[in-house]
Amino acid sequence: MKKLSLLVLLAGAAAAFAGTSIQTNFSPQTQINAIQAQRVSDPDSPERPQAASTTMDQLAAILREEATDVQVEAGQISFKYEGRTMLILTSAQHDRMRIIAPIQKATDLTSEQRDNMLLANFHTALDGRYAVSNGIVFATFLHPLSTLHEQDFRSALSQVHQLVQNFGTTYSSGALGFGAGQEKPEPLPAI
C-alpha cells in the first residue's frame, strides 16, 4: 500500500470540518473533495450556551503533555501521538470537536474489512469509530466541546491511535468490547 500524504489528507479534512471547499491532489488519479460541514438543527430546541466549553488552549495544553509536534491553528490542532500524525478539528459555534487519523484509501478496502469496521463500531471501537470521508478510511472520535472532560479526551487519543494500529487485525480501540466475538447478532424482537 502506498503511503498517503498526511498533510494533504489533513488539509482536506480540516477544510471539510470548517465548511470550506477544497480539492487537493495526492496522486495523479485521486482527489480529495472536502465535504461541507453541515449543522443539523432542531428548531424546537434552544441554542446551547458556549461558556462552559472546552477551549483550544485547554486541548493544546493536554496535547503538549501527551503528544509531540503540536501545532495550533484556527479551529484545528495537528500533532503526533505515539508517532502517528493526527488532527483535532473544533467548532465552538457548533459545540463539536473531532479527532481524526487517516488509515488508507477507501478504494483499497476489501468487503471483509468494511464488514469488520462496521462490527467494530458496534462491539470493539468503544467511543472511537471507523469512518470513510473523502475517499479515505479514518479512525475518529467525535464529542461535544461543552461536556468533554480531560480524562475522556486522553482516553479518546489512545482509542483513535489503537483503532489505526489494530485496523486489519482486532479492529479494537482498547481492551473492552461489547459482544465481541459474536459471529451473528441476536435477532431483534418484532416491533
**Spatial extent as radius of gyration:** 17 Å
* Count of structural domains: 1
What is the count of β-strands? 8
- CATH architectural group: 2-Layer Sandwich
**Which stretches of 5+ consecutive residues score pLDDT under 50?**
1-9, 14-46
Strand order of the largest sheet: 3-4-5-6-8-7
Q: How many individual helices?
A: 4
What coarse outline follows from CA principal-axis ratios?
A: globular
State the end-to-end distance: 45 Å
Content of β-strand: 25-35%
The level of helicity is 25-40%
> Average pLDDT, to the nearest integer?
76
Structural class: alpha+beta
Largest sheet: 6 strands, antiparallel
In the CATH hierarchy, the third-tier topology is known as Yope Regulator, Chain: A
Order of helices and strands: HEEHEEEEHEEH
- CATH class value: Alpha Beta
Structure summary:
The protein is an alpha+beta fold and 191 residues long.
Question: Explain this structure to me?
Answer:
The radius of gyration is 17 Å and the shape is globular. It is of the alpha+beta class and 191 residues long. The strands form two sheets. A six-stranded antiparallel β-sheet has the order 3-4-5-6-8-7, sandwiched between helices. Strands 1-2 form a two-stranded antiparallel sheet. The chain has a single domain, classed as Yope Regulator, Chain: A (2-Layer Sandwich), CATH 3.30.1460. The protein contains four helices and eight strands. The chain has helices at 6-18, 56-66, 111-123, 150-165, and strands at 23-27, 30-33, 68-73, 76-81, 84-91, 96-105, 129-133, 136-143.
